[in-house]
Amino acid sequence: MPVAYVDPDMTVEISTISRRRALSGAATAGIGVPLLAACGADGDDSAADPSSSATSTSSTRTTKGTKKSGPPKTTAPSEPATDGVPTSDVPVGGGIVLTDPRVVVTQPAEGEFQAFTAICTHAGCPVARVTTEIECDCHGSRFSIEDGSVVGGPAPAPLAAADFTVSGDRITLA
């Protein structure tokens, strides 16, 4: 059996840390690391720019056996829609999101128009675009272009209908 030799003249220093200092360091690391991670940028700005996401550049969707091609029209001109929106700006089987007022105008079938508030019923975010559905990027809620009902996602209620009239080739919001 091996025997260890200990020099009685040798001094050994033992370093100690107080409990208070240890807990303070752990708390600082527990708060600081996630805070720095949340503030840091990873160099990929695509998450902050919805227009660069794959869904906004998707050129093909299939609904009820009909293939739609080309990028979807998602927003109308940024000027207020007080004088109305041309019906030709609203694609059949899709729609547009107006910013002033915040309204979505859809055309589920040729010549059939609908209008809804453009504020998602889940968290109050403005909806982002209209393809074959009205889409909210905040948490992925999707709504029907026909009646504003919830198609998917966490939204608890349909989009509220907005008042509008169609006169000739213009849609006027009330």
From TrEMBL:
<dbReference type="GO" id="GO:0004497">
    <property type="term" value="F:monooxygenase activity"/>
</dbReference>
<comment type="function">
    <text>Iron-sulfur subunit of the cytochrome bc1 complex, an essential component of the respiratory electron transport chain required for ATP synthesis. The bc1 complex catalyzes the oxidation of menaquinol and the reduction of cytochrome c in the respiratory chain. The bc1 complex operates through a Q-cycle mechanism that couples electron transfer to generation of the proton gradient that drives ATP synthesis.</text>
</comment>
<keyword id="KW-0479">Metal-binding</keyword>
<dbReference type="InterPro" id="IPR017941">
    <property type="entry name" value="Rieske_2Fe-2S"/>
</dbReference>
<dbReference type="InterPro" id="IPR005805">
    <property type="entry name" value="Rieske_Fe-S_prot_C"/>
</dbReference>
<dbReference type="GO" id="GO:0016020">
    <property type="term" value="C:membrane"/>
</dbReference>
<feature type="region of interest" description="Disordered">
    <location>
        <begin position="42"/>
        <end position="93"/>
    </location>
</feature>
<protein>
    <recommendedName>
        <fullName>Cytochrome bc1 complex Rieske iron-sulfur subunit</fullName>
    </recommendedName>
</protein>
<dbReference type="GO" id="GO:0051537">
    <property type="term" value="F:2 iron, 2 sulfur cluster binding"/>
</dbReference>
<feature type="domain" description="Rieske">
    <location>
        <begin position="82"/>
        <end position="173"/>
    </location>
</feature>
<dbReference type="InterPro" id="IPR036922">
    <property type="entry name" value="Rieske_2Fe-2S_sf"/>
</dbReference>
<keyword id="KW-0001">2Fe-2S</keyword>
<keyword id="KW-0411">Iron-sulfur</keyword>
<dbReference type="Pfam" id="PF00355">
    <property type="entry name" value="Rieske"/>
</dbReference>
<dbReference type="GO" id="GO:0016705">
    <property type="term" value="F:oxidoreductase activity, acting on paired donors, with incorporation or reduction of molecular oxygen"/>
</dbReference>
<dbReference type="GO" id="GO:0046872">
    <property type="term" value="F:metal ion binding"/>
</dbReference>
<keyword id="KW-0408">Iron</keyword>
<dbReference type="InterPro" id="IPR014349">
    <property type="entry name" value="Rieske_Fe-S_prot"/>
</dbReference>
<keyword id="KW-1015">Disulfide bond</keyword>
<feature type="compositionally biased region" description="Low complexity">
    <location>
        <begin position="48"/>
        <end position="78"/>
    </location>
</feature>
